[in-house]
Design goal:
This protein has 234 residues and is α/β, with parallel strands linked by helices. 18% of the residues lie in helices and 25% in strands. It has a 6-stranded mixed β-sheet with strand order 1-13-10-3-9-8. The chain is globular and about 65 Å long.
Length: 234
């Protein structure tokens, strides 16, 4: 459980190992652009790419940012999806925090038609083995938004502004070109391995110690089509 949590945190915000190196390249740096609000210069540069250099527009993700906080609205969500798709994205995954998820629920709740809960089926969707929470198939499904799975994570980053809620990511993990590699995913060099010992001479006590080993990196093969909505409030 702890190992899976660390991988999740490594994807969503910087976590350093004992020698000061990031465990995984974070989604927030991958889905970024030159001159993004609220970040230091160079933060957006990944894989050795200078996103502010001339001719590097192809490497800049779509980021809807603002110098002031904005109320999260349906228009902002639709604008995020429209712009990423206009860039050629097959957006198939939305990722956000629980606070933004709750705000999204509030946006559409007044328009939901609630059926008899005793006869209503439960809905759960997912992608790549990642499942959403169960929701009721009423009005808009709480498990997906505009037909796209909506995943929540407690580790989703957000800015430091008062009342600011977690970013909303519009990600493309598809492989429409048929290369056998997703446009965004973790490339694995060494799969997860588990080692365990109870060697008293090695440990100096009668205990069981275990360790996980994994080698991989977050790899984006289509930076231009990834999207992020930030600087929002409930």
């Amino acid at each position: 459980v702890e190992f899976a949590k660390l991988i999740n945190q490594g994807l969503l915000k910087k976590i350093y190992n004992p020698v000061g190196q990031t465990i995984l390249e974070t989604l927030d740096r991958v889905v970024s652009k030159a001159g993004e609000q609220g970040v230091t210069a160079g933060y957006e540069d990944v894989y050795g790419i200078d996103r502010s250099a001339p001719g590097s527009a192809w490497a800049n993700s779509y980021v809807d940012d603002s110098s002031t906080l904005r109320d999260l609205t349906d228009y902002l969500i639709r604008n995020l999806l429209m712009n990423t798709r206009a860039r050629g994205a097959n957006t198939n995954l939305l990722l956000t925090g629980y606070d933004t998820y709750a705000t999204i629920q509030g946006l559409y709740l007044p328009f939901a038609r609630i059926n008899n809960p005793m006869t209503e089926g439960r809905v759960q969707v997912g992608i790549g083995g990642v499942q959403t929470a169960e929701g009721s198939n009423v009005g808009i499904q709480v498990a997906q938004l505009y037909g796209i799975p909506l995943i929540q994570s407690v580790d989703t980053p957000k800015g430091s502004g008062s009342g600011e809620i977690s970013y909303l990511y519009a990600l493309d993990t598809s492989d429409p070109e048929g290369y056998g590699f997703p446009r965004l995913g973790i490339s694995v060099l060494r799969p997860v391995e588990y080692f365990e010992t109870r060697d008293y001479v090695l440990l100096g006590k009668f205990v069981i110690r275990g360790v996980y080993r994994f080698i991989g990196e977050t790899v984006a093969r289509f930076l231009y089509g990834q999207g992020k909505l930030r600087d929002i409030r409930a």
